[in-house]
Design goal:
Elements (H helix, E strand, L loop, with lengths): L9 H28 L8 H20 L12 H25 L6 H31 L2 E6 L3 H11 L4 E7 L9 E2 L2 E4 L4 H8 L3 E4 L6 H11 L6 E3 L3 H6 L8 E2 L2 H5 L8 H6 L5 E5 L4 H12 L4 E6 L2 H18 L5 E5 L5 H11 L3 E4 L6 H6 L1 H21 L4 E7 L8 H17 L6 E7 L1 E3 L5 H10 L4 E3 L5 E2 L1 E3 H14 L4 E5 L5 E2 H11 L4 E2 L8 E5 L19 E2 L5 E4 L6 H16 L3 H10 L12 H15 L5
Parallel strand pairs: 1-2, 1-5, 2-4, 5-6, 8-9, 8-11, 9-10, 11-12, 12-13, 13-18, 14-17, 15-21, 20-21
Antiparallel strand pairs: 3-4, 6-7, 16-19, 18-23, 22-23
């Protein structure tokens, strides 16, 4: 709501303020005479009036020249009080000197009375108005508690006190040296006082004022507040603040990757540059979640040229514009070529690779959503398998140096068509790798990435903002998660390690229970979960049941024989592959069945093929139990 005082024109405010000051000076001057003379003011005449006019004009002029009238009354502080008092003190000197000049009657006590009364009427009144207006203003601001009493916290309090959005209720810090003290009039509490503050003030936002904190530390901080269902915001990085990109009060939501607290590993420059720097690089599926991030990472390594291949014009335009802006900002001359094309068109891919002399390909174009592919089997195979075959054949024909396939953990003992198609795409490249040509084929396998299209994180956030319910397929379902930037960076480095036909697996860390993720996301947004224990909660969680082909547990290795590499988060999997004639025969069977549009036969071919594909209900019970025990030990997720 807009305050009525803000609707008053500036010129009118100025006239009102000047008028008030003149009245205050008049009262202070004449009241000083009354107090000194006891009501006998017969001696007050023209000289004394001239003294007053001189003093009043001097005072108002000083107020104007020192910007007293340009300051906002509701932000009146001690510094403003001292300024006004100093001007009034100087006016008192002018009052005494002018009395000597005009030979006016001015007892010595009157200037001192005038000083006290004028300062009280002018500076004191401003302080009172500032307090009254400020009190009303505070009530319109959002209540917040700041975590961190250090330098960043103090700067944030100082900045917020001048703003109109947040009212700081308290400060929380874990260092006992701060607890019990006050900063800018705000008391500092310990971590054990959170419940006490909630009882006193109700729900409030927590502003995390700890800059340049590592992921593990941020995870610890988030875990402290998350159970209380308090909305968390954090200050920008100190780099952004110092560089002027962001202000300290430009707060942002705590992201889910900060909730997971995964410490990033510095990339190995030699691996990051090997297939990119000074080379012509192509990215298929450049407009997808992984494709976009690959493009962002690649452009930083200064390739000779970057080719964007995308079937969606809208997605291609978006990433192309982003890269153009990045190039301008960093003064890069790297040509970026956006091309609309389908990887299933082998002739088009061959023409692109030949015309641009492509040296490295990152193949990220695929249909990845399990239920969609389950209901569109032919489309899934056409894109994920035959599309990979066509673009790989084009790479071989054009003597592309390196071809990197973005694979998935769902390719391991798949229970759905999508996973089966990705495993089959791996077999195609493994088979091609054994033939005589110049192209190195590398496959990189990883799990879910945070924030990608169709992932649970943006879905949950959308559902929470709508007021729920949050839909989770099963109470026991767990998944591996990794941030998109980390995944793309590791893909580029893994691609540089391959010798041909290699399958690399990214270390995804411990798996996450999806229902726990939903609860924590709800709490981070300042809301509570509605269940039997808390029937008055804000957001309900509903279990919708596993979707067709969906696993409870994902895995990254077919066999438990992974080996370490030069990078601590990249492993190589020694897995069974097929010779090209057998792969080619399998492709012929699938293509024949697709021509007849015989979905049942296609599914049976995938089951019979050496893919490890076992639709739900056909997977051996013993394997399920063994895997459940293994993952329970790994992630400390309780078994049911």
């Amino acid at each position: 709501m807009i305050r009525r005082i803000d609707l008053i024109p500036s010129k009118l405010k100025f006239l009102i303020t000047v008028s008030y000051d003149l009245i205050s000076l008049s009262i202070a001057f004449f009241l000083s005479y009354l107090l000194r003379l006891g009501g006998d003011i017969d001696s007050f005449g023209v000289p004394e009036l001239l003294v007053f006019v001189t003093t009043a004009v001097f005072t108002i002029a000083c107020f104007y020249l020192t910007d007293v009238y340009s300051s906002v009354t509701r932000f009146f502080n001690a510094k403003s009080f001292v300024k006004i008092t100093a001007i009034v003190a100087l006016s008192t000197v002018v009052c005494y000197v002018s009395a000597q000049i005009y030979e006016a009657f001015l007892p010595r006590s009157i200037p001192f009375s005038f000083l006290v009364l004028a300062a009280l009427f002018i500076a004191g009144a401003r302080a009172l108005v500032g307090f009254i207006v400020g009190k009303q203003w505070f009530e319109q601001r959002e209540p917040v508690v700041i975590f961190g009493a250090g330098t960043t916290g103090r700067e944030l309090i100082s900045t917020l006190s001048l703003g109109s959005k947040y009212q700081v209720l308290a400060i929380i810090d874990q260092k006992t040296v701060y607890v019990g003290r006050s900063l800018f009039g705000v008391k500092v509490y310990g971590l054990n006082n959170i419940e006490q503050l909630i009882k006193k003030y109700g729900q409030f936002k927590v502003l995390i004022a700890v800059s340049e904190v590592n992921p593990e530390r941020m995870k610890e901080i988030v875990n402290v507040f998350e159970p209380y269902a308090l909305e968390l915001l954090t200050v920008p990085s100190m780099y952004d603040i110092v560089s002027g990109k962001r202000k300290i009060d430009e707060l942002r939501e705590v992201s889910v990757d900060e909730l997971l607290g995964r410490e990033p590993v510095e990339p190995i420059p030699e691996l990051l540059n090997a297939n990119v720097e000074g080379k012509v690089v192509a990215v298929s599926g450049a407009g997808g979640s992984i494709g976009k991030e690959l493009c962002r990472q690649i452009i930083r390594q200064r390739p000779e040229k970057l080719i964007l291949i995308e079937v969606s014009e809208a997605f291609l335009y978006e990433i192309n514009q982003e890269l153009i802006e990045y190039k301008k900002e960093h003064e890069l001359e790297t040509p970026v070529i956006p091309l609309i094309g389908n990887v299933q068109n082998g002739m088009l891919m061959t023409r692109i690779f030949d015309n641009h002399k492509v040296q490295t390909i990152y193949h990220a174009a695929a249909y990845k959503h399990v239920p969609m592919v389950e209901n569109n089997v032919i489309a899934g195979i056409t894109n994920n398998v035959l599309g990979t075959y066509e673009i790989a054949q084009a790479a071989v024909f054009c003597e592309v140096e390196t071809f990197v396939l973005i694979s998935t953990d769902k390719a391991v003992r798949p229970t759905n068509v999508m996973g089966a198609t990705k495993r089959m795409a791996e077999l195609v490249l493994q088979g091609l790798a054994k033939r005589d040509h110049q192209t190195r084929f590398v496959m990189v396998r990883f799990g879910n990435v945070l924030g990608s299209s169709g992932s649970v994180v943006p879905l949950f956030k959308k559902q929470i903002k709508k007021g729920g319910p949050i839909t989770v397929t099963h109470p026991d379902i767990i998944r591996y998660f990794m941030t998109i930037p980390e995944a793309a960076q590791l893909v580029i480095q893994a691609g540089a390690m391959g010798k041909g036909g290699d399958v690399f697996v990214l270390d995804m860390g411990a798996p996450v229970k999806i229902v726990d993720l939903a609860i924590k996301m709800t709490h981070l947004m300042g809301l509570t979960v509605k269940d039997e224990e808390n029937p008055n909660g804000d957001i309900e969680i509903r279990f919708s049941g596993l979707r067709p082909g969906e696993k409870l547990y994902e895995e990254l290795l077919i066999e438990d024989n992974a080996e370490v590499t030069a990078h601590k988060r990249i492993m190589t999997a020694n897995e069974i592959s097929l010779p090209w004639p057998e792969v080619n025969q399998l492709l012929d069977k699938v293509i024949t069945a697709m021509k007849d549009e015989n979905i049942a036969e296609i599914r049976q071919i995938l089951i019979d093929a050496p893919l490890g594909y076992a639709p739900l209900g056909l997977e051996p019970a013993k394997h399920l139990n063994d895997k459940k025990e293994q993952l329970a030990r790994l992630s400390e997720v309780p078994q049911n």
